[in-house]
Each structure stands twice: as C-alpha cells, then as structure tokens.
Design a protein that fits this description.
Blueprint lengths: L7 E5 L4 H12 L5 E4 L7 H6 L8 E4 L2 E4 L1 H11 L10 H26 L4 H21 L12 H5 L1 H14 L10 H11 L2 H6 L3 H18 L2
Helix pairs in contact: 1-3, 4-5, 4-7, 7-8
Length: about 220
Amino acid sequence: MTTNQEEVKLLGATGSPFVCRVQIALKLKEIQYKFVEENLVNKSELLLKYNPIYKKVPVFVHNDKPIIESLVILEYIDEIWKQNQILPSDPYQRSLARFWSKFIDDKIVVASSKSVFTIDENEREKHIEEATEALQILENELKGKFFGGEEINFVDIAAVFIAFWIPLIQDITDLKLFTDEKFPKLYNWSQELLNHPVVKENLPPRDPLFAFFKARYDGLFAASK
C-alpha cells in the first residue's frame, strides 16, 4: 500500500496489453495510483518528459522517478512493495520467470500480431508458424492452474496478451491460432486467468478494442490494393 508521502502515477493507454500488465500488478499489491490516459497520436509533454527515448507507454512514475518497459516496471513494483509477491523468492525460479516473460514478448507477442497484420501471404504464414511453435513450447511448460501454481505470478501477468489479446485479434480474420483444440492446457489457463477477479477488473472493454483493431486491419489491406 502507498503512504501519504508517495506519489504513484501510471501513464498509459486503455487497450494496451503492456499497460494492462502494470495495472494488474498494482491491483494485486493494492497500490493506489493515478492513471494518466495518453493519446499516442498526440503525445503529451509529460510522456515526452518521462520517456524521451522511446516515447511509449507504459511509464510508471514513483516519486517523480520514471520507470519504462512493462516487465521492468513489474520487477520494480515487486521490489518496492513486498506484499503479494509476483516474482518467486528462489533465485533460480525468479530467473526462469524472467526468461519465460521475455520469451512471451519476443516469440509470441510479435509473431501473433504479425500473423494478423501482415499483408504478404507468405510472410503471414511464416509468422503463424512461429507463433504456433512458441505457443506449443509454452503449453509444454505450464504445469499447474497458473504459471505461479495456485496463484498468478509474474509470468501469468506477462502472458495476459495470450489470454485476452490473441483471441481478440484472431477473430478479425477468423484465424485459428489459439484454440482449446490446439493448446488445451494454455486455453484452460487463459480462462482461469480471465476470470481471476483482479485480472477481470483490469481488462479493457472488448468491443471498442475489437473495433479499433478491425479498422486498423481493414485500413491496412485497403491501402495495399
């Protein structure tokens, strides 16, 4: 919990999976904070001040000290506020959590997004194959209800993109990338995660987000003709 002396702000954009990660962690730890909605088309002076290099969200600001990159922010939050730890205490298990979270960003977030938003058919098929292979690796890694066992942890929070955003963007093109038939363990995990009260409370509304991605998809392919 925050004290009266602490100032905690989160600069973000509703609908960003990376911002959502931070919101889930803050809620799990019962940290009060001010959310500053950013317009990423017309970026605020505050965002440019706190993240002048990448100019992206999320930016977590603690007592006027900015931290950027969602996984880095999650680690910072876990180190500052000790209640409801999201990283394992064991150094080896902690290193594994970092590894799999990075794996999700490098191998699944990028490839699955490109599986939808790539015009060239051959390139698109390549990204689908890459995403499918990475999802299978993660399927094999899942041993329990959550990656954290009975409670959600760092990897579960990082993987919220798989549970919420992949089903959303694949529905735009009827792509069957992530299904219960292909990945039964991951699919069951995703349903447990989406129904977790803290996660459920911090997910963005689906319909406007779907409309946003659908318009982006339609515009991309219309421009290519």
